[in-house]
């Protein structure tokens, strides 16, 4: 019997791509194109800088997928109409989802094709850290803070410093920045904010550049819209490339009207939207607001949980991140039961969002209600005075 399923090409096996696979593999013939042969749970990668063997707990090999995926290892070069070209061949598709994410400096976010070689890279990184007495982290965002805290917590005798041109966790709520700075100080990490001086690289044995993402240069049809300064794809409300309704885009490389913060969680949520729209072409849903949700590791057994403006830190966020890591990796591996747990976990986040919005609404209404009552008391007093004056007459 002829296979009547349509072909879905997924370019990039990151959080968005793997989410689409787990939710559409029954409806489509899926082809996965990625220049790496494995998925990596990047938010926990700094633990592998200290314990390289832990990388095998954070990864899965695409060829071992239990979802019936045809995996092709290669780098996408360009797309014309419904044909994707990569180094060494081409793939015809009915639908495509571009979820290639972003690049970061090695070894933080590696492009090494084989998992065994990635392990070797991490072993070399561990050895460099062990041999270095002074370590500089350039960048005070989530990546820089996590890396500095992990190294210092593991190697207390080493000198670890952070320099950043802005503030520590400048894009996070102030409470998160304050908590992180206290943890940095407690660990004995030196840091300097608003740094605009000369390069300090030569003063340190080892330097990690944690200044931000870059994006792949992919050539599409000439009429495809891109945000040129960052090479991100502009998409419509349904996360489709605006000039080709058969091509979706999610994750770091996607620029939507929601302008969401680029995290693993937001990539997953966009993956869920695309998966739904692929399965329900006549009842598609628009991209919705994705809450800013983070768990930032701070070395040892400490982390900080951030949900919009709400934050708290300590041991519980560390356990939460560990739980999320286990659930996500095992879901993507196809282990029975973990997909349901993963879905429940995401629903809980949105329940938290609804509760948060209700609380914010009540907090906004409360002062208004108080002012109305005050105005009513003033008006009542004025009427009473008028009545008293009338009685005197």
Task: Break the fold down into its secondary structure elements and pairings.
Blueprint lengths: L5 E6 L3 H10 L3 E7 L3 E3 L5 H5 L8 E3 L8 E4 L2 E5 L2 E4 L2 E4 L2 E4 L16 H17 L2 E5 L3 H13 L4 E5 L10 H14 L2 E3 L13 E4 L16 E2 L4 E3 L12 E3 L4 E2 L8 H16 L13 E5 L5 E5 L2 E5 H19 L4 H55 L1
Parallel strand pairs: 1-2, 1-9, 2-5, 9-16, 10-11, 10-13, 11-12, 15-17
Antiparallel strand pairs: 3-4, 6-7, 7-8, 14-15, 18-19, 19-20
Structural features, described:
The longest helix has 55 residues, at 338-392. Among the domains are: 132-209, FAD/NAD(P)-binding domain, CATH 3.50.50; 346-393. It has a five-stranded parallel sheet with strand order 5-2-1-9-16, covered by helices on one side. A four-stranded parallel sheet has the order 12-11-10-13, with helices on one face. It is of the alpha/beta class. The chain has helices at 15-24, 46-50, 115-131, 142-154, 174-187, 264-279, 315-333, 338-392; strands spanning 6-11, 28-34, 38-40, 59-61, 70-73, 76-80, 83-86, 89-92, 95-98, 134-138, 159-163, 190-192, 206-209, 226-227, 232-234, 247-249, 254-255, 293-297, 303-307, 310-314.
């Amino acid at each position: 019997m002829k296979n009547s399923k349509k072909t879905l090409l997924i370019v990039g096996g990151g959080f968005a791509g793997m989410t689409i696979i787990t939710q559409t593999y029954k409806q489509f013939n899926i082809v996965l194109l990625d220049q790496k042969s494995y998925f990596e749970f990047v938010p926990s990668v700094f633990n592998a800088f200290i314990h390289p063997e832990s990388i095998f707990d954070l990864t899965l090999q695409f060829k071992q997928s239990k979802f019936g995926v045809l995996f092709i290892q290669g780098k996408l070069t360009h797309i014309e109409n419904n044909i994707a070209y990569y180094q060494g061949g081409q793939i015809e598709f009915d639908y495509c989802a571009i979820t290639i994410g972003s690049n970061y400096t090695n070894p933080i976010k590696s492009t090494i094709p084989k998992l065994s070689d990635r392990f070797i890279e991490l072993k070399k990184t561990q050895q460099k850290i062990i041999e270095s007495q002074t370590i500089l982290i350039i960048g005070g965002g989530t990546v820089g803070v996590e890396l500095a805290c992990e190294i210092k917590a593991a190697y207390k005798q080493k000198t670890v410093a952070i320099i950043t041109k802005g503030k520590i966790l400048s894009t996070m709520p102030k409470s998160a920045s304050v908590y992180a700075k206290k943890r940095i100080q407690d660990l004995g990490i030196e840091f300097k904010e608003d740094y605009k001086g000369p390069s300090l690289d030569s003063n340190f044995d080892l330097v990690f550049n944690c200044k931000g993402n870059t994006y792949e240069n992919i050539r599409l049809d000439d009429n495809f819209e891109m945000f040129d300064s960052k090479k991100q794809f502009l998409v419509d409300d349904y996360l489709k490339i605006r000039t080709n309704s058969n091509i979706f885009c999610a994750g770091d490389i996607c620029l939507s009207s929601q302008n969401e913060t680029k995290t693993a969680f937001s990539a997953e949520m966009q993956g869920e939207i695309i998966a739904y729209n692929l399965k329900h072409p006549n009842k598609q849903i628009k991209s919705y607001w994705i809450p800013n949700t983070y768990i930032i590791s701070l070395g040892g057994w400490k982390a900080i949980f951030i949900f919009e403006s709400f934050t708290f830190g300590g041991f519980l966020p560390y356990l939460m991140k560990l739980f999320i890591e286990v659930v996500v990796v095992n879901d993507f591996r196809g282990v029975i039961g973990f997909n349901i747990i993963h879905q429940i976990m995401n629903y809980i986040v949105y329940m938290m969002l609804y509760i948060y919005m209700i609380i914010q609404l009540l907090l906004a209404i409360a002062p208004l209600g108080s002012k109305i009552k005050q105005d009513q008391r003033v008006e009542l007093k004025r009427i009473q005075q008028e009545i008293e004056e009338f009685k005197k007459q």
